[in-house]
Amino acid sequence: MTVLTTSAARIHSLTRRICQFLLGLVFVGQMTVVILRYVFGVGFIELQDAIAYSFAALVVLGLPVALVLDSHVRVDVIRTRQSKATKKWFDRFGTVFFLIPVFGLTIWWVWPDIAFSWSIRERSVETGGLPGLYLVKTTLPLACALMILQGIAGFVASFERPKDD
């Protein structure tokens, strides 16, 4: 394994653990909101914002995790009938001509909004809501960068594996 693929594997492991934590936070938080609201008649905007922030981060950080686990949706509907070599060719082609350009352009397009959000330290639109919305918005370009990293690592790794793979 190269330094790139080793680093990408470590980053994937960390990202996966973060996603698992966020999923647990969303579940426990939402159950707490429901119990507080319908059993005790109490509501907390801050808790609802924390759940929304966690869910948003979970969704975008789940993209590179799904890519590495090969659990993402495929465009090539005939994949099940393809040979392993053809699948590798499609994956390599998709990484170079779709994944890297699309996620690179996404970073380019959202960067001004992220920079503005950081400059004003954007917070929740709800009165009494949580600060730190700019941190949640930052997960989008972070996830795009992780997608590019994992795509390149997968591309490189596809040449390292034995041909009978």
Q: What is the CA-atom radius of gyration, in angstroms? A: 19 Å
- Secondary structural class: mainly alpha
Proportion of strand residues:
under 5%
Poorly predicted tracts of residues: none
Largest sheet: none
Series of secondary-structure elements, N-terminal to C-terminal: HHHH
State mean pLDDT (0 to 100 scale): 93
N-C termini distance:
15 Å
The level of helicity is over 70%
Number of strands: 0
Short description:
The protein is mostly helical. Helix content is 76%, strand content 0%.
List keywords for this structure.
single chain, 165 residues, mainly alpha, 4 helices, 76% helix, elongated
Description:
There is one protein chain. The chain contains four helices and no strands. It starts with a helix and ends in a 5-residue tail after the last helix. The longest helix has 37 residues, at 3-39. 19% of the residues are buried. By secondary structure, it is mostly helical.
Explain the layout of strands and helices:
Elements: H1 3-39, H2 45-68, H3 84-119, H4 133-160
